[in-house]
Amino acid sequence: MTTDQQPLGSPFSATSTTEDVMAGLDLSGVTAVVTGGYSGLGLETTRGLAAAGARVIVPARRPGIARAALADLAGCAVVPMDLADLDSVRAAAARISGSVGRLDLLMAVAGVMATPERRVGPGWEGQLATNHFGHFTLACELYPLLAAADGARVVVNSSAGHALTDIRPHDPHFRTGYDKWLAYGQSKTANALFAVHLDALGRGDCIRAFALHPGKIITGLQREMTLREQIDRGWVDEHGNVIGAGFKTPSQGAATGLWAATSPLLDGRGGLYLEDCDIARIAAPTDPMDNGGVRAYAIDPEAAAHLWTATTTATGSTTTKSTPATTSSPAATSSSPAGV
Fold it and tell me: I want to staple 34 with a disulfide (CB 3.0 to 4.6 A). Which of 74, 97, 107, 112 is the partner?
């Protein structure tokens, strides 16, 4: 496991905002794709990039709402896309590929959390399909544009929720009983492992990938939860006001992703899990989830390669590069037991 998975002493912190990490940056000439870039953390991310001069393409399940939300931002375009529908993802990628010659940043911010049981595609569990399969397919389809940038970064929003569970090889689609929080946790572990192996595959094409925990923030991500659930967890009061300890504002929540996308401190690095605008430490298996850090299973290169193989089999998606830039063990390229 990489020894780079430890804090490096970033000048920013958990309280840093989008404005803090983007101060003085000029992203003129940079093209970015931000999934979910019209609400919550995604909108904050789009605003930060656009304010610095980047051209931002926002794939959106609700394109009309997205265009209205982005109407006051220069250099933004909306492309219809539903992450839970891989045909829709491929169509969106084709539209993007037809409009730009390279892609400097792919920001995978969209996601769902703790949803009721939903089946999509051939019966896939909905959170895994949306949070992981959709972004996996989008990155594979856009890989040639990322390689053309000669220095692209892919930034994937995972979550401290990955601590809830590793990939479940015995039942990744919860066919023997659904648990909305374990399903969410598995999808967030998948996001982290996806970044690990995409970085291994892409570094020869100067593509580096990172996963991150944005922090605890109340946004539209909680839309599938009742107010009572959020009150009982101590997140909000009966009026919906945030009262939970350690919660961030949306601007603070978007800061780590924007830091991942732009910080020169991450030049030459990749395959890392970030939090609070720094590289996260590796957490012990018994550490409470709210104490931060990343579980070792979520950054394990062999597990990441297994998941990549299984996801390729499930989705039919793959990059134009078939082997990592660094040598993998035979186990890392064998068929995955995860069966996703």
Answer: 107
Residue whose structure tokens are 């609070």:
276
184 catalytic? Reply is yes
Q: What is the DSSP string of 142-165?
A: HHHHHHHTSS-EEEEE--GGGGG-
* Fold of the 18-221+248-333 domain: Rossmann fold (3.40.50)
Reported as a single tens digit per residue, the pLDDT across 195-225 is 999 999 999 999 999 999 998 776 665 666 6
For the stretch 105-155, pLDDT in tens is: 999 999 998 899 999 999 999 999 999 999 999 999 999 999 999 899 999
- For the chain, domain boundaries: 18-221+248-333
Q: Using the 8-state DSSP alphabet, how is residue 106 labeled?
A: E
Write out the two tokens for 177: 């009983």
State how far the alpha carbon of 118 is from the alpha carbons of 172, 190, 314, 331, in Å.
Answer: 14, 18, 17, 33
Rounded to the nearest 5 percent, the helix, strand and coil shares of the chain are: 40, 15, 45
Residues 6+ apart with CB under 8 A from 100: 31, 55, 57, 145
Tell me the pTM: 0.90
Eight-class DSSP state of 50: H
